[in-house]
Amino acid sequence: MNSVVTKVAVVGSGIAGAVCAAALARNGVSVTVFDSARGPGGRMSQRRELSEDGKELSFDHGAPFFSATNSDVLDLIHGWEARGLVAEWKENFGMFDPITKKFVDFEKEGLSKKYVGVPGMNSICRALCQEPGVESKFGVGVGRLEWLEDENLWSLTGLDGQNLGHFMGVVASDKNMVSPRITDVTGKAPPLDMNLAPKLDGKLPDIPVNSCFALMLAFAEPLSSIPVKGFSLKDSEVLSWAYCDSSKPGRSAMSECWVLHSTMEYARGVISQTGLRKPSNATLTKVAEELFQEFQSTGLNISQPFFMKAHRWGSAFPAASIAREEKCLWDKKKRLAICGDFCVSPNVEGAILSGMAAASKLTEILCCL
Ligand SMILES: Cc1cc2nc3c(=O)[nH]c(=O)nc-3n(C[C@H](O)[C@H](O)[C@H](O)COP(=O)(O)OP(=O)(O)OC[C@H]3O[C@@H](n4cnc5c(N)ncnc54)[C@H](O)[C@@H]3O)c2cc1C
């Protein structure tokens, strides 16, 4: 396509939506990205915090890194690397055995290349959402998608009832766009009624999810007793992984920042008591204390942090993949693609593959109009 011909709405600026939007724009399709969050990235976000004494801190509180084996994905990653958006995180990783108090499995944990966004995990999505032909609107949640039969177009309405415009095609990059589970969280109906896409109805079940709590910690001094920059915790019921966020390339070395991830079982236990709605500050404080206590119980000489805050990821990892072959759901007649990690695999690579597949479906059809 030689010139910009049409408009597609991409709902969600996580890596699936951002990759899809940029690919569409590069093929001459003009795109508007909407995200209810304040910035891009979704589960590849970076969180900015201010300590009590005014220190600026940032944490990759979602995905700490990503790896890839698919050659198309690797091509993309190498392109991002060349633009300075991505770098390899070349540190030692291992597993901590609480019985022997030793770090083991260095080789296994270090096997795959670990990539990170620079200077934060969100930098890739941010750059993709700023590419020519992509208009991005953050803090704008899509509340309703309607198909206008006579006009052969989609009409989008914001969560506050505002008109977001008419679009020839739509990409929904979050399963909550159609999941009844969202009603338990927000009290509202999902934005997309699957009766509008009868061909896809039944292909998108209520996907089970695994949750996770992330604990952000900042220390005045490096934790010098820890010989690795990321480690799993063997047999812990509370903590699964710990990462030294500030050891990633391009991060500030002013403070030593760590991010700990809870086990899915621990998160499930807390959510079964507190419910799906946004957790209270009291819940997050209790979770922070419990995760930190488990970190200290390793006996690794962990000093007191000057900053500590927990975050809940209610839908951290989809527990099913619904379109491994096709990589996205697609209704050609209505020009509707549904993509995200839940289509392929519960990681960044799966989300990228799904976003690429959605872009290719739309490009194919919009080319011929
Ligand atoms: C704690 C944690 C650790 C992880 N560790 C790893 C790891 O080590 N390696 C790895 O590869 N992956 C990891 N992952 C998984 C990885 O982050 C995800 O697989 C990937 O980021 C999913 O991208 P996505 O675009 O499919 O979805 P998301 O990033 O969830 O993007 C969906 C976007 O849609 C937006 N949205 C939803 N509804 C609406 C609406 N109605 N209107 C507007 N916007 C809307 C959301 O705000 C969000 O930004 C981890 C995730 C978490 C949470």
Written overview of the protein:
It comes from Liquidambar formosana. This protein has 369 residues and is of the alpha/beta class. It folds into two domains: 173 residues, FAD/NAD(P)-binding domain (3-Layer(bba) Sandwich), CATH 3.50.50.60; 182 residues, Polyamine Oxidase, Chain A, domain 2, CATH 3.90.660.10. Helix content is 25%, strand content 29%. The protein is built from nine helices and 20 strands. A hairpin with a 5-residue loop joins strand 3 and strand 4. Helix 1 packs parallel to helix 4 and helix 1 packs parallel to helix 9. The longest helix is centred in the C-terminal third of the chain and has 20 residues. The protein is globular and about 70 Å long. The N terminus is likely disordered. Bound molecules: flavin-adenine dinucleotide.
How would you describe this structure in keywords?
alpha/beta, Polyamine Oxidase, Chain A, domain 2, six-stranded mixed sheet, 25% helix, globular, binds flavin-adenine dinucleotide
Number of contiguous helices: 9
Helix content: 10-25%
How far apart the termini lie comes to 11 Å
Write the element-wise H/E pattern from the N-terminal end onward: EHEEEHEEEHEHEEEEEHEEEEHHEEEHH
Q: In total, how many domains does the architecture comprise?
A: 2
Q: Provide the gyration radius in Å.
A: 21 Å
Q: How does the overall form come out from the CA principal axes?
A: globular
> What proportion of the residues form beta strands (DSSP E)?
25-35%
**Count of DSSP strands:** 20
Low-confidence stretches: 1-5
Assigned CATH architecture of the largest domain: Alpha-Beta Complex
CATH class of the largest domain: Alpha Beta
Bound small molecules, by name, code or SMILES, are: flavin-adenine dinucleotide
**Biggest sheet, strands in spatial order?**
7-6-15-16-17-14-18
